[in-house]
Amino acid sequence: MSSENPPTSPAKAARPFDRRSVLTLGVGAGLMAAAGPAQAQNFAAQALQSTLGEGQRFSPTTLVDLARLLSKRAYTPPPSDLPDPFANLNYEQYIGIRAQPSATLWNMEGRGFTVEPLHRGFAFQNAVSLFIVEDGAVRRVIYDRSRFDYGKLNVPATLPDLGFSGFRVFGDGQNGRQREVAIFQGATFFRSSARGQNLGVMARGLTLKAGDPKGEEFPLFRAFWIEQPAVRTDNLVIHALLDSESVAGAYRFTLRTGDVSIIDTELTLFPRAPVENWGVAGMTSTYLFGSNDRRNVDDVRPAVYESGGLQIHNGNDEWVWRPLSNPETLQISAFVDPAPKGFGLIQRDRDSNAFQDDDQNFERRPSLWIEPIGDWSPGLVQLIEIPTESEINDNVLTYWRPKQPLQPGGDVSVAYRQFWCWQPPERTQLAIVTATRVGKGRTATARRFAVDFTGEMLKQTQTVLELKATLSSATGTVSNLRLWPYPERKLYRVGFELEPGNETACELRLVLEAGGKALSETWLYRWTP
């Protein structure tokens, strides 16, 4: 198991950003006007304009053909140069740039969604093309200086077409107010959330060479085509063109909102070069410290993390819970699976007392659960944990890594569903892990563990009497196993000590069983010094 183990609306009206009909010059939403002549003539720009640029008819098939065509040519990065004062913005200056209400696409039209184009600057240097699709026709979203409030920045009276860094999506919220439901910005990153949540875990469109000694490759979304939503709809369709040194690809995202936000992702990849380490359905999150990992912590808060663990429902119908950690050295774990049923980074702690952070409210961060659509080839869920001393760093990455490498000349299609939620839609009937605590053991090198399981069956005295805890460690020695049943709290606590000896890593496995059957999910843990 583990080596650790919609239709577009016929209505059409003027848009604040697309009233002018102009000839786009390519891959940066008019951004090539601000770039050099050589860049303006690159193949990607020409191909984009001639197939899916201003005035063209949009077709998902054409987008796939464009990605295939792009993959047969050498990679040319999009422009990342910015004029003053945007070239060297700090965070405070960047967030001071705000779109005017009139800049928002479909504002006050009652379509269920509005879209806010986002300015370039700070960490978001690359120019991205934005298009809308109305009645099947492509309209370019044009950068306009007057559509932004620049705060305290001294901005020239005239600016070239800078393009955008991405966009933010707003959907219907409570009391007739709109709420932010998604943001696509930076490389292939995007986020969403359930109703009442803050943004947290971040998804990736594609993961390439993560954890490789020579460094990770970050693909980019070059352009987006956003279909005009129908009146009072609850779904929004977004298409994207991906490009990188190794891969080109076509994407379709179908966003549905409600108490839970759902994004169906369909993608087709065309490799330029062989890639062995690649993955889809990737996501990143932050884990600084918690009850199982308070190494060198001096903080008034009891815990700081957006996600508490990796949950997997594997092809053997086993439910796995792997608590996250902030290790001293880079840790890479692999959970082999011939046919995964689901996985994701989960936030189970929904009580503010778990964090006592009145600013960040980590208890309101979304869980992100992936459900495969169709048959996935054999592979593994890869988990990478990166040491960090700051809570602003996303130091946890997980994704599905297919067994077969990417090879030039072929194509790969994958589909999956994302649930941005309070808890995954598919829930096990087994007892789940609700706490993992680690501290000093009886000797200088021993570590003491306490793992809490919670479930409805644990309130039954007879069930509790029949339970046994099956514990193992691939290395090191476990001892002093103790059990504390609390039926009135539907809780079963397992305590033990680990003596690692001279080992640099110990793989622990724990499950509650009765009559030879698992009554809990499987707790997996990697201890490192």
Automatic annotation (TrEMBL):
BP term (GO), one: beta-glucan biosynthetic process
Protein localization: Periplasm
Gene Ontology CC entries for this record: outer membrane-bounded periplasmic space
Pfam family, one: MdoG
InterPro entries per the UniProt record, alphabetical: Gal_mutarotase_sf_dom, GH-type_carb-bd, Glucan_biosyn_MdoG/MdoD, Glucan_biosyn_MdoG_C, Ig-like_fold, Ig_E-set, TAT_signal
Domain Glucan biosynthesis periplasmic MdoG C-terminal stretches: 58-527
Pathway: Glycan metabolism; osmoregulated periplasmic glucan (OPG) biosynthesis
Domain of life: Bacteria
GO molecular function, one term: catalytic activity
Keyword set, alphabetical order: Periplasm, Signal
First and last residue of the signal peptide: 1-40
Gene3D superfamilies given in the database record: 2.70.98.10, Immunoglobulins
UniProt cross-references to PANTHER family, sorted A to Z: GLUCANS BIOSYNTHESIS PROTEIN (PTHR30504), GLUCANS BIOSYNTHESIS PROTEIN G (PTHR30504:SF2)
UniProt record similarity statement: Belongs to the OpgD/OpgG family.
Protein name: Glucan biosynthesis protein
